[in-house]
Structures are given as structure tokens and as C-alpha cells.
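Much of what follows relies on a compact textual record of a protein's fold. A complete example follows; check for yourself that the lines match position by position.
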Amino acid sequence: MTEHRQGAHGGQYFAPAPDSEDIRRRLNVDLRGHHTQVETSNGVFSAHRLDLGTSVLLKHAPEPPHRGSFLDLGCGWGPLSLALALERPEATIWALDVNERALELTRRNARTIGLPNVRAVTAQDVPEKLGFDLIWSNPPIRVGKDELHRLLMAWLPRLNHNGRAYLVVQKNLGADSLTPWLQTALGPTFMVGKHSSSKGYRVIEIARTTPVPARQNGDDAREGTPQDPSRTEDGDA
């Protein structure tokens, strides 16, 4: 991605405890029409601005369900989680990251804005049997392909029946090869395709098309027939 995803003093954003100095700064951001001020710091992803890929996902992802359990996979300081919480106050948003500084910032930003439906946690704090109606992610491409694949396959299969995930990935960092890999890895119970393309990024849509085993909140799954996730725009904006 265009960001190097490192702190100002070299601390990787995907480290549990960044070694960069914790220097707080304020950003004024537009989160899907919600203009708000947030706090960021070194050692988290895109500390100085709203990342372009995140902006693309915020612009192109369709309206979320009105309620349910949503996951922001790799939340950073929380732009996707905050946008989802602002847009759907009746939903529960699980903001997931390994970076404790990022989680603290997400919690702080949610408190400041007044969003009690955001839960910023590490993976072990997510209930094992919890399924998700929606996943948004600007995934950490720079952790490496193997680690990225493990991360995605740990969480995408937890989509509820008719649940959807939207991932934003830069084209020159493998978006077009990730899409068929996901279809193969997830198998025929999922549909994977390009939702949209903008500013050098792809938004990939993953839809779960078959019922989920009961242990993954199957009783809460939404009914209906999913749309073909390859349906939308082909060209760059």
C-alpha cells in the first residue's frame, strides 16, 4: 500500500507493543459523511492521515445491515470501526488488532465520539462461537503472504449465512491474485469477486452463500439470496 505501515521511529504497526515514541496527534476526518476529530499516534497504521485504501473502502462499501455483529479486522486507530458504529448504532462492532496502542486509540476515539457499541480487542477476547454479519478490513499486506492468508482464513469463515466481507487491497500488491486464492481457499460455500476498483485499489467482496453451523450463531443468520459479488464497476475512478 502507499503507506509503509511503520511508526515514525521504525516500530512496525503490526507489533503488539510498538517501540516508537507514543506522540499523540489530532486528525479531522470524514467517515462516510460523519465529520469528526480523532486521536492517533506513532506505531500505528496511517498515523498522520486517513489512509487512501481505507478511504476507498469507506466510499465504496455498501450500506451495512442495520444490526448484528460486525468485525473490523486490523482496526488501527479505528476509522472503519468508528464509521460502522456511527452508521449503525444498533450493531456491535468488534475492532480487532494485535497492536495494543492501536486498540487503546480505538477505545479512546470511540469514547470521545460517544460510541458504546465499539469493542476494541485482541483475538483471544472474541467469543469463540461468535459469527459475523459483516467484516470490513484494510488487511495488513506487509505481514507477508503466508501470515496474511492465515489471518484471513481465521476470520472470513466466521461470516454468518448471507454475511459479507469487504477487503481493500492495492492492485500492485496482489489484489487480483488474492481474489481467486480466496475463492479456492474458502470453497464453494462462499462467493468471492471484485466489488469495485478505485485509485489503484480493489475492493474485494466475499459472501457466505450457505447456512452456517449452529455453533457459529446460525440462529442469528439473515435470510435471503446473496447477490453476485462480481457485479460492480470495472474501471478505476
In short: The CA atoms of residues 6 and 12 lie 5 Å apart. The first strand starts at residue 25 and ends at 31.
